[in-house]
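Case 372 in the screening queue. Each case pairs one protein sequence with one candidate compound; here the compound is pyridoxal-5'-phosphate. For every case the pipeline is the same: read the inputs, emit a complex structure as tokens, and attach any notable structural observations.

Predict complex for case 372.
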Amino acid sequence: MTTAELRIKTRLVVIDEEVRKTVLEVLERTPYYAGPETAAFEAELAAYCGVRRGVAANSGTSCLLLALLARGIGRGDEVILPSNTFVSVPECVLFAGATPIFTDVESDGNLSRAIVERHLSPRTRAVIPVHMFGHPVDMDPIIDLARERGLYVIEDAAHALGARYKGRRAGSLGHVGFFSFAGKSITVCGQAGMAVTNDAALADAMAGLRVHGWDQEVGNVWHVAERVGLNLRTSELHPAIGRVHLRRLDGWTETRASHATRYTARLSAGGAPVVLPTTRPDQEPGWLHYVIRAPRRDALRAFLRDEGIETGVHYPVPLHLQPAFQAFAPDPSAFPVTDAMAAEMLTLPSHPWMSDHDVDVVADAVLSFYRR
Ligand SMILES: Cc1ncc(COP(=O)(O)O)c(C=O)c1O
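Case 372 output:
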């Protein structure tokens, strides 16, 4: 069965008339980048998160790099991050010139204060908690530790736009947080990301570095680099689409949460031998991904594919085992939870355009695999 023939997919985006109209309007005027759509999207998303500033860039990865560079994290510095995450996290640390310190995770797939504490050294400058799958990290203990030790906290909220921790938005909890819009809680039909922060000086520094280190994007300071930057700006099209989709986000999050409740009820009632995602009372997850831990995961995945159901694996090879990063994780036995998760994690389809019936079809297919 080809991907095109799959009946139920992990990702689907329905482009409606408002998005089409918006795209055409943006195409008919200039500037095509660094213009009013970018500025409005930054202001609207910052307000949504309850913070002062947003700095949009051409990907979530770029936002993380900007957050590191703007704070001067570089050579000689260590940055603590989980091995159970996406490749962007250590790659940005390395491009900034710093050293990634890979850690294992708790059974929920996230970092904790205890884990961070075990990896501190006199060279530790920053920590990057990742809200995996949209489930916020227990941030307060990590923020307390960061205060005690003078650490910089960058939240990787790529999966967690719309999620809350103790009533506060994911992304607004550390010194800076960042989101990805490449097919995440909202999509911008392409690549873009945004960093959010309450620290105006940090936001200004990120905004300058995003455009060649020119500290202002208008006026006669163009072409005068105050610092060594890059060109990480986004086109106006993506923020324009992001603005439309941001207005729909809360509704989409409700639908994803309702799919999660439905999956959990049906899979537990059917007695599937899988581990289901759980939620702490302080979390309101964004439910970007509904991830189960499934024995015989690869066989289940093939079975579901034959039934026309697409699934995902986030992430199949932990970072500490990837050739590019192995040198920074000298003891491969130090990641038992991450290794076990990588062998069993399976992302079931769950997106706003899926019906309750589709959820039941997927859950029943999982149950029938284990009953054979
Ligand atoms: C956890 C995590 N962090 C960072 C990123 C990077 O975001 P982008 O793809 O927008 O660069 C991703 C993207 O999938 C991600 O999943």
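Case 372 observations:
- Residues 237-269 form the longest helix (33 residues).
- The chain has a mean pLDDT of 95.
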